[in-house]
């Protein structure tokens, strides 16, 4: 029997909900049409997935399909639980599917405190399930019966395979937007991410509800601030990387303080920036 972790449920629009998983404050999305319902990201393992599934079944009994915004474990490790509940369609970008196939096993330790079964490969729901329905640039709409959702394939940014989902005024961005904590640069391309945030700003209107990968929903002004902050951090970061002796890049605490992301993510940010600069 799987120990379920109950999410917080919030309705954002007539057909759209977000379910906040408490562990990593990761947002799962739910979009309900007349024939199908789409679940956007499945949590960090069977415990969160079981809580999500129970909460979703209180909202809809329609057949479910799953969309993964990207390949990080806290967003996809609940996939196997959903498959065991009868879900057959798992959508993601080709790059995210490839990332999960090749790197997924390395991420199990990320969830060890929240999802020990997932971390230790125990039990029937701990398999890493790679999405098989690959979203392409040509296939931008998905019909849920009387309601269409739109895929936005923005290309590299937070990872090399980010996918956003829009339904009316609600936009699920995955970790391309982060609230309540710094953006995660572990697999990021800071330059591409800054470009993307610029495009995202132009996608949003004043009424758009932006559901970030983690934390509370935000608006266009927040996206704009995150965009400006990243542009400024890139300029600061480039100066730091250029001032370091070649081959011995090791930022000081003072250099990290200049950046807005806290010491850990700022160090990762500089590392990723230096790779992209070279
Ligand atoms: Zn992520």
Automatic annotation (TrEMBL):
Taxonomically, the superkingdom here is: Bacteria
Q: Where is the Metallo-beta-lactamase domain?
A: 25-214
What molecular functions are annotated in GO for this chain? Answer: hydrolase activity
Species the sequence originates in:
Paeniglutamicibacter gangotriensis Lz1y
Q: Which InterPro entries match?
A: Metallo-B-lactamas, NDM-1-like, RibonucZ/Hydroxyglut_hydro
CDD domains xrefs: metallo-hydrolase-like_MBL-fold (cd16282)
Keywords, sorted A to Z: Hydrolase
Does this entry carry the keyword Glycoprotein?
Answer: no
Protein name per UniProt: Zinc-dependent hydrolase
Is DNA-binding found in the keyword set?
A: no
């Amino acid at each position: 029997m799987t120990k379920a972790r109950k999410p917080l449920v919030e309705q954002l629009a007539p057909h759209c909900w977000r379910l906040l998983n408490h562990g990593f404050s990761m947002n799962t999305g739910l979009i309900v049409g007349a024939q199908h319902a789409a679940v956007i990201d499945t949590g960090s393992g069977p415990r969160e997935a079981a809580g999500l599934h129970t909460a979703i079944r209180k909202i809809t009994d329609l057949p479910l399909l799953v969309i993964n915004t990207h390949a990080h474990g806290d967003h996809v490790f609940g996939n196997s639980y959903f498959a065991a509940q009868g879900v057959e369609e798992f959508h993601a970008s080709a790059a995210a599917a490839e990332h999960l196939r090749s790197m997924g096993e390395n991420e199990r330790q990320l969830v060890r405190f929240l999802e020990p079964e997932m971390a230790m490969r125990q039990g029937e729901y701990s398999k890493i399930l790679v999405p098989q329905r690959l979203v392409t640039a040509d296939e931008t709409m998905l019909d849920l019966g009387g309601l269409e959702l739109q895929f936005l394939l923005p290309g590299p940014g937070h990872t090399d395979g980010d996918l956003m989902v829009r339904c009316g005024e609600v936009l699920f961005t995955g970790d391309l937007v982060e609230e309540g904590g710094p953006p995660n640069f572990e697999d990021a391309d800071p330059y591409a991410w800054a470009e993307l945030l610029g495009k995202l700003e132009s996608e949003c209107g004043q009424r758009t509800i932006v559901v970030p990968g983690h934390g509370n929903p935000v608006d266009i002004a927040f996206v704009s601030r995150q965009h400006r902050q990243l542009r400024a951090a890139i300029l600061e970061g480039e100066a730091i990387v250029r001032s370091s002796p070649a081959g011995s890049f090791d930022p000081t605490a003072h250099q990290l303080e200049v950046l807005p992301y806290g010491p850990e993510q700022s160090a990762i940010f500089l590392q990723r920036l230096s790779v992209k600069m070279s």
